[in-house]
Design goal:
By secondary structure, the chain is an alpha/beta fold. Helix content is 41%, strand content 17%. The chain has 11 helices and 11 strands. The protein binds 6-O-phosphono-beta-D-fructofuranose.
Length: 340
């Protein structure tokens, strides 16, 4: 392995995800073991612009493997989206003698890396982390499993009390643009039905008939999972936000059932990372450092077919995220015609 770099900067950007800290730790420990210095850039791209950086030693990243959030803080920097913002950022990168930037985050983070590397001679590596698991180039993003486990635990609790009272629950799960988390969670909680941003829903088919089927089969508790971005319906109903409340209102008005609504919200983004996220983040962090040491330029670390590997950044950005149709079909098959 040829060592071509002396100093790396690492930042976390966009919505945080459990396991981001494990990725930072892994990059720091791996880089330091090869004599490479690591700067932690605080508050994402805004920290690059503001020159808000700290040197990360092995000791600095002790005791963070098991913590949620990101100790480097995260932000969505509007200034970095402008050429002027990136100019300021590059000035600081150059003055600090940083050879490469590792960005941990979602699609927006990768686009920031691409713009920076297109305009200035700086090498960049992306590590995918978002609870949405909605990055097309990778089968898995750090944080997905932890968020899903948090949601499932909360829904199991809600389910206990809703069953005792023979009620209908509407649970809103995170995901403005992607229903992957909602679908995954719906399967794991044996939901009655799920509404997703990717699919237009029909009240009769996707909610009413499902509840009726369950009722006729003798069930007395119905669990409706909705992604926060599931606003597309085929009746032209104007739903812009608070989808859970809107769906509950329809159930009340059209079926005379009084649902209880729970919006899980940011509780899903926090909390201790699960083993899968700790291990995936650690493997991705080490590969990010090795990729840089091999002299590779502008890469994204991905998880594909049970392998962690690196691919070209532009190629990564061009891949669109799609819903796992097979998961949707499985849920349909199990909830479609419930009998006895
Ligand atoms: O991208 C992660 C995510 O948690 C989405 O699931 C959600 O739609 C969005 O971020 C919420 O963003 P914010 O925390 O800015 O409200």
């Amino acid at each position: 392995m040829i060592k071509m770099i002396k100093r790396i900067g690492i930042l976390t950007s966009g919505g945080d995800a459990p396991g981001m800290n494990a990725a930072i730790r892994s990059v720091v420990r791996s880089a330091n073991s090869h004599g490479i210095e690591v700067y932690g850039i605080r508050r994402g791209y805004q920290g690059l612009i503001n020159d808000d950086m700290i040197i990360l030693h092995n000791k600095t990243v002790s005791n963070i493997m098991n913590t949620g959030g990101t100790f480097l803080f995260s932000a969505r920097s509007k200034e970095f989206m402008t050429p002027e913002g990136r100019k300021k950022a590059y000035k600081n990168i150059k003055e600090r003698g940083i050879d490469a930037i590792i960005g941990v985050g979602g699609d927006g983070t990768f686009k920031g890396l691409r713009d920076l590397s297109n305009e200035y001679p700086v090498n960049v590596i992306g590590i995918p982390a978002t609870i949405d698991n909605d990055i097309g180039c990778t089968h898995y993003t750090i944080g997905y499993d932890s968020a899903a486990n948090t949601a499932v635990e909360a829904i199991d609790n809600i389910s206990d009390t809703m069953q005792s009272h023979e009620r209908c629950s509407v649970i809103e799960v995170m995901g403005h643009n992607s229903g992957r988390l909602a679908l995954y969670v719906a399967i794991a909680t044996a939901a009655t039905t799920v509404l997703l941003p990717e699919d237009k829903w029909n009240f009769k088919e996707d909610i009413q008939d499902k509840i009726r089927n369950y009722k006729e089969a003798g069930y007395n508790h119905y669990m409706i999972i909705v992604a926060e971005g599931a606003v597309n319906n085929d009746e032209g109903l104007e739903i812009k936000e608070n989808v859970g409340e809107a769906v509950a209102k329809l159930i009340q008005e059209r079926m005379n059932i009084e649902p209880r609504v729970t919006v899980l919200g940011h509780i899903q983004r926090g909390g201790r990372p699960q083993v899968r996220d700790r291990v995936t983040a650690t493997r991705m962090g080490v590969l990010a450092v090795h990729t840089l040491m091999e002299g590779q330029k502008n890469r994204v670390i991905v998880h594909k077919d049970n392998t962690i590997k690196d691919i070209d950044l532009d190629e990564a950005i061009n891949q669109k995220s799609r819903l796992y149709r097979q998961e949707k079909e499985i849920l349909e098959e199990l909830t479609g015609k419930v009998k006895g």
